[in-house]
Write a structure and sequence with these properties.
The complex is a heterodimer of chains A (about 475) and B (about 160). Chain A is an alpha+beta fold and about 475 residues long. Chain A has helices spanning about 45-50, 60, 70-85, 90-120, 125-135, 135-155, 175-185, 185-200, 245, 270-280, 285-295, 295-300, 305-330, 380-395, 405-415, and strands at about 1-5, 10, 20-30, 30-40, 165, 170, 215-220, 230, 245-250, 255-260, 265-270, 345-355, 355-365, 370-375, 430-435. Chain A has a domain at about 1-45 and about 385-435. Chain A is globular. Chain B has a 5-stranded mixed beta sheet. In chain B, about 60% of the residues are buried. The chains are: A alpha+beta (about 475), B alpha/beta (about 160).
Chain lengths: ~475, ~160
Amino acid sequence: MHDHPDGTLTVEHVARVEGHGNIVINVRDGRVEDVRLEIVESPRFFESMLVGQDAVVAPELTSRICGICSVGHTTASIKAVEAAFGMEPSVQTLLLRRVILDAEIIQSHILHVYFLVAPDVFRSPSVFPLAGSHPDIVKRALRLKKFANRIMAVIGGRHIHPVALKVGGFSAVPSDADLRDLAREAEDVKRDIDETVELFRTIRFPEFHRNTEYLALKRHNQYAFYDGDITSNLDGGTNPDQYLQRIKESVVAYSTAKHARSNGRVFAVGALARYALNGRETLSDRAARAAAALELERMKDNPFANNLAQVVECVHLCDDVFQTIDTILARGVRQERPVPAPERAGRGVGSVEVPRGTLYHEYEIDKHGHILRANCIIPTGQNLARMEQDLREMVPGILDLPRDEIRLRCEMLVRAYDPCISCSTHMLDVSFIDINEIKTTSSPLEGEAGWGVTPLPASPSGGEDKTAATSS
Amino acid sequence: MTRLLLGVGNILMGDDGVGVHVARALKAEENPPFLAIEDGGTGGISLIDLIEPFDEILVVDAANMNGQGGGCPAGRIAEIRPAMLCARRAWSGHDHGLVDALKLLEIFPSKHVVRILGVQPASVSPSLTLSPELQAAFPAILTTVREEAVRPWNMKGVTCHD
């Protein structure tokens, strides 16, 4: 907390918000003048690191952008290279990619709803006190996450930054026995998933409904993840190859992360957008029942319901994992090698639904197979403008609440989008700038109990605010 | 006794990836049968699944030790007490890191002994290679890590409960 020279007050370091950015709420005479989502961390320029690289190694490099969305980046990257080279992977390859992508989305959603959202609703400062007060809940989360990690290890060779996914196929195909081992876990996993639905059925999120555009990949009669047309609830579909015709990124003065518009409008991507566009009828039967139990249809214009949509997707994805593994086994596992990549020039777009929304990779490749130009549009980058707009629409309606409650509500709203800041940049502190009334408290949740954590100061050499062993 | 040498960090961010570079270099060597070596990347909470099967874990990561009573030269390697670590307070799941994985191991009692070796980075910014400073120090870093990785600890390592 510190005073500005002009007499305004800024509160920093709000609980469970580690800052490379701010939510600034500017209030004058009890009215909201402005709400801004400021991202202040330096952009990371991953795209420029791809230029000059052999296109077939791009998937491996981009898998390192993020520890949670490795498969998502790898898949988008592989699809972009295959599109540029005009390659067609085998049916088995597509099925295996589907399972590993399902698994990554499950582990990411489980991490989000149990480790980030559940502490909010139990009013716990973090998952760690929750592990003490509700150990069964946290143990269930770890079991589900472990199962998803096992799938990634079996199919991808390792569960952190999997390596077996290649342009043209898999460098190693899992054995029939390994896949049968995974299939045997179905009953236990489905029980944990059902209990997850039950847990979230008891939770009431704030009623904040707003009109927005949603974008997601969509296929006829299928809840799409791996491919589909870019679809909007407001106007027609777009071929992913033409993504730049629809999605335009622009620089915002107060943020180092770009904001995106769809045909000029702010929009949202992610689990709730996917649910709203694909529809309940494309879910597995169990997932459709979960959606009904969680009242998702009624909540689909409420950004807080993204948490519920993630739970529903977990149900659907678990069903899809087991069904797809059965399909692979029924076809008979083939120990096939990747399709060789031709050495030729081309341009390709890879689009895929990842935990937080639609991810695009686009590469232009020269005749030697080297990347000339790369563009990546990350889901969180697409959501930033919508998050800010949501804050602007929500804050005036909750201004009568105590400061700490407003702060929590704002954090919960942004957290509902599950922002992937290591891909775009990092976030966030929450600041109130109250022009007239200077009366605020620091968060009671500040400083987590129990572990005596001591921050090491930032490097004077600048760049990254690196503290000891903070690799995430 | 089984032991895991776990190198963590982001190899796209220059010296942040020093732990991974160390793990990869040592994995290519002949190692005693009790020692496994893994590249943990930026695995976050998922590191638990790597750590869990082992009795002893030696983590290698970039660690900024500047400001603890003066400058710390790039490439210096030091043991870090887990209690000294800064847990990033999480905004998204991406903010759960090694520290949080260790804290969960603490909450659900385990027999693990965890030691952490920190390497002072010179530059944490987008780059596929280590800084010239860390490249120069790399052989010495490997020697230190190798010695710690193979010598008996007699269970006196710093545990999560420290």
